Amino acid sequence: MKILIADDEPSARERLTRLVEKIPHCTVLQP
């Protein structure tokens, strides 16, 4: 798993950003 995450670091960050955009609570928490 770590190898996949390390190899797909940019994609993982993009997925997190998309998740944050989907979840309004996260957007509110972020300044």
Explain how this protein is built.
By secondary structure, the protein is mainly alpha-helical. The chain has one domain. The protein has 3 helices and no strands. It is elongated and about 25 Å long.
Question: Whole-number average pLDDT?
Answer: 66
Q: Approximately how much beta-strand content do the residues carry?
A: under 5%
Q: Helices and strands: which structural class?
A: mainly alpha
Question: End-to-end span in angstroms?
Answer: 31 Å
Describe the main β-sheet briefly.
Answer: none
Alpha-carbon Rg, integer: 11 Å
* Uncertain runs: none
When the domains are counted, the total is 1
- Using the alpha-carbon principal axes, give the shape: elongated
DSSP helix count? 3
* Order of SSEs: HHH
Strand count: 0
User: Share of helix among residues?
Assistant: over 70%
Which secondary structure elements does this structure contain, and how are they paired or packed?
Blueprint: H1 2-7, H2 9-22, H3 24-29
What labels would you give this structure?
31 residues; mainly alpha; 84% helix; elongated
In short:
The chain has 31 residues and is an all-alpha fold. 84% of the residues lie in helices and 0% in strands. 0% of the residues are buried.
